Amino acid sequence: MKRHLLEAADLDRDDATLVLDTAAQIDAALAGREVKKLPTLRGRTVVNLFYEDSTRTRISFELAAKRLSADVINFSAKGSSVSKGESLKDTALTLEAMGSDAIVVRHSASGAPHRLANWVQGSVVNAGDGTHEHPTQALLDAYTIRRRLGRLDGVRVVVVGDVLHSRVARSNVWLLTTLGAQVTLVAPPTLLPVGVGSWPVEVSYDLDAVLPKADAVMMLRVQAERMNASFFPSAREYSRRYGLDAVRMAALSDDAIVMHPGPMNRGMEIAADVADSVRSTIVEQVGNGVSVRMAVLYLLLGGNA
């Protein structure tokens, strides 16, 4: 692996497979152990530098680093010198001067982790930048699909909803395609990015037409906080056309799984009974996220890669 993980395109097929295999080895090593901890990164320092609110991702990275015995510093932009106007560069250099080996960064500006990687000596992991990318989410999604279905090559993944504002969708498209999956995007035209025609995907506006062929259906949250205009007539209309309910779930093949990167708008893009069904991998995705992020930190900081 390279020194940083900034976007899904940083990973070729071998690199991505190495992360997934390492996560599986970590899962196996921790299975049945009362103390879920490995000494691999003892003496290393990982900084979680979060300029945007996050529950799942921040806690997941914190737990991953601690399970590898690293020291963890959680830095929230609120209540810090950032609120006094300190720049990203100055903050990063300050953290590095304190001895950080890796900085996990989430930022509202697309490209912020790339700039950070130019300023610091340690590793930088992108934990979500604007509407650009979220590579470790794509890795944990791929890991979840592989664990449930036993393969990624040839798997048909349907990604549904607010693709325009979704860094998760972008990272998943590139990573899953690299790993041999076939991706179809389903969304209203207003929620698809300009230039999607150049992506290695199929595009459909009709969810019901693509569901019977899907092996995995990934529902995306409608990101109302990033919308400053009306992208669809109403929540009810959106849910009727693009929401996954029990009737639509019944159209899936017997082995197909339902995914969601979270947080969910229950009753909007996904019905509660679907989210809580045996087909759903939503809780597994959260658990798998810790193992995958452990693998990423291990390979960047402690592994032989």
TrEMBL record:
It holds the Pfam family OTCace. This is Aspartate carbamoyltransferase. Its EC number is 2.1.3.2. Heterododecamer (2C3:3R2) of six catalytic PyrB chains organized as two trimers (C3), and six regulatory PyrI chains organized as three dimers (R2). Carbamoyl phosphate binds at residues 56-57, 106, 134, 137, 262-263. Pathway: Pyrimidine metabolism; UMP biosynthesis via de novo pathway; (S)-dihydroorotate from bicarbonate: step 2/3. L-aspartate binds at residues 84, 167, 221. Catalyzes the condensation of carbamoyl phosphate and aspartate to form carbamoyl aspartate and inorganic phosphate, the committed step in the de novo pyrimidine nucleotide biosynthesis pathway. One of its GO terms (cellular component) is cytosol. GO terms for biological process: 'de novo' pyrimidine nucleobase biosynthetic process; 'de novo' UMP biosynthetic process; amino acid metabolic process. Residues 153-300 form the Aspartate/ornithine carbamoyltransferase Asp/Orn-binding domain. Residues 3-146 form the Aspartate/ornithine carbamoyltransferase carbamoyl-P binding domain. PROSITE patterns: CARBAMOYLTRANSFERASE (PS00097). It comes from Geodermatophilus nigrescens. It is an enzyme of class 2 (transferase). It catalyses: carbamoyl phosphate + L-aspartate = N-carbamoyl-L-aspartate + phosphate + H(+). One of its GO terms (molecular function) is aspartate carbamoyltransferase activity.
